[in-house]
Amino acid sequence: MIGWKRIVVTIGEKIGKSHLTYAQGASAELCAAATIGVSSAFALPVSTTHVLSSGIAGTMVAQGGVTNLRKKTITNIALAWLLTLPVTMVLSALLFFLFRLFA
Prior knowledge:
The chain is mainly alpha-helical. Helix content is about 80%, strand content about 0%.
């Protein structure tokens, strides 16, 4: 709830070098909705932000090739994806052990 504006600006304006068109937004949203729906049907966890940002990147590539992506933003997103799972696992384990001391 707090960081929504940063996410919206990154997804809408910083993934590609050109501005997001209505057709690109609609395509990315439909793709994200379908992916999330299929994931839900199979009870698979999925990040809506990850799915949508991938859809936006796909529409940017379709519009102008790989050169239409901002390399720095894509690198930052990829690093966040790779680091999210192990950091969360370690943090939750540490918190579990800490809370268990007081229980």
